[in-house]
Design goal:
By secondary structure, this protein is an all-alpha fold. Helices cover 69% and strands 0% of the residues.
């Protein structure tokens, strides 16, 4: 799968992008990082966010820190709102549930 096909599969919420990322995560690093800070769902109201898909993609990497840091930076921007904000918060919650203390701190700071 080339990068364009990967990005399209990620935007459509197709599991084949997870399989491709598991096989060669470094090839798709930029696309996964891009996905973390952009709304992926076409209609999030009926589809929900793509946070679970992104969590599976981020889990393919041994160090989630670059992805987490990009999420936290995007969360801090005033221009991040709506479904994108929901996707970012949900992904940070998945990371916090996995034991990422900085992700948990970011979520707690957001809601306190």
């Amino acid at each position: 799968m080339n990068k364009k096909e990967f990005k399209r599969a990620m935007l459509c919420g197709l599991g084949r992008c997870i399989l491709a990322c598991r096989n060669d995560p470094e090839r798709y690093r930029a696309e996964v990082l891009w996905g973390c800070t952009h709304q992926l769902a076409y209609d999030a109201q009926c589809e929900g966010s793509r946070a679970w898909l992104l969590h599976e993609l981020v889990s393919c990497y041994p160090d989630a820190a670059p992805f987490r840091d990009a999420l936290i930076a995007a969360l801090g921007r005033k221009s991040t709102w709506g479904w994108l904000r929901s996707q970012i918060e949900e992904l940070l919650i998945y990371m916090a549930d996995g034991g990422d203390e900085e992700a948990e701190k970011a979520i707690r700071d957001e809601y306190e």
